[in-house]
Amino acid sequence: MSTAAIARTVVGVIGNVISACLFFSPAPTFVQIWQKKSVEQYSPIPYLAALMNCMVWTLYGLPMVHPHSLLVVTINGAGCAIEMIYVILFLIYSDRKKRLRVFLWLLLELIFITTLTLVSLTVIHNDKKRIAVVGTICMLFNIGMYASPLSVMKLVITTKSVEYMPFFLSLASFGNGVCWTTYAFIPFDPFIAIPNGIGTMFSVVQLILYATFYKSTQQQIAARKAKVQVNLSEVVVGNGIQEPNNNNTNKISATPNGL
C-alpha cells in the first residue's frame, strides 16, 4: 500500500470518528426533548438534511458507484440509522402541524433516494458518468446539510440567544468539515472537497455566533428563571401564606412553613 493510500485511510478513519461525534452530538438535545415530551423551538431541518446527506453519500460510496470508498459507506450508513432516530423523535414529540411537515419531507426523501439508486444502477452504465451524477447530487446535499442551520442562525441573531443552537453540534461540524476536506485531497476528489470546504466556513460562522451571543443567552436564561421564581412566590402569597415584618409590609414566604 502506498504512502498516499495509508494517509487517506488514516484520515478516513479519523473522519469516521469525528463524523460519529457529529451524529451523536445532538443526543443531549434529544434527551431533553424526550424528558419534556416536546421539541419546543428546535428545528427538524438540520436532521432531515443530515439524513438525506447520509443516504446519498452511502450510495456514492458503494463499489458499483465509487470503488475503494468503504470508509464513506461505513460512517454514512451509521449516520442514516442515527439521523432516522432523531427524525422519528420529531414525529413523536412535535405538534400535529409540524409532525405532518416532517412526515412529508421524510417521505419525499425516501422516494428521492430510491429513484436515484434505481436510475444510477440501471440507466447509467458509464462509471465516470455515474460518479459525476451521484457525486454532484451528494455535493449539493452536503452543502445543504451544512447550510441547514442557517434558519437556526437567523433565530440566534433575532433573539440574541444560542439556546437553540447546540454548541457541540457546531463544533463537531467544524471538525468534520476540516477532516473530510483533508481526506478529499488524498487524492483529489472535488465532490468531497468542495462541500466540506464550504461546510467548514459555515461551521466557523456558527462558532462565532455562539461566542458572540453566549453571554446574552445566559442573561436571558437567568432572567427567565428569576421570573419563574417570582411567579411561584406570587402563587404562595395568593394562597394566603404570608409573614408580616416590622414595617407592616408583606414578606413573601418561599416555603409553606415560612422559612
Automatic annotation (TrEMBL):
The chain crosses the membrane at residues 6-24, 45-63, 69-93, 102-125, 131-152, 164-186, 192-214. It is found in: Cell membrane; Endomembrane system. Mediates both low-affinity uptake and efflux of sugar across the membrane. Keywords: Membrane, Repeat, Sugar transport, Transmembrane, Transmembrane helix, Transport. One of its GO terms (molecular function) is sugar transmembrane transporter activity. The keyword Repeat applies. Belongs to the SWEET sugar transporter family. One of its GO terms (biological process) is protein homooligomerization. It is a multi-pass membrane protein. GO terms for cellular component: endomembrane system; plasma membrane. The lineage of its organism: Eukaryota, Viridiplantae, Streptophyta, Embryophyta, Tracheophyta. This is Bidirectional sugar transporter SWEET. It comes from Crotalaria pallida.
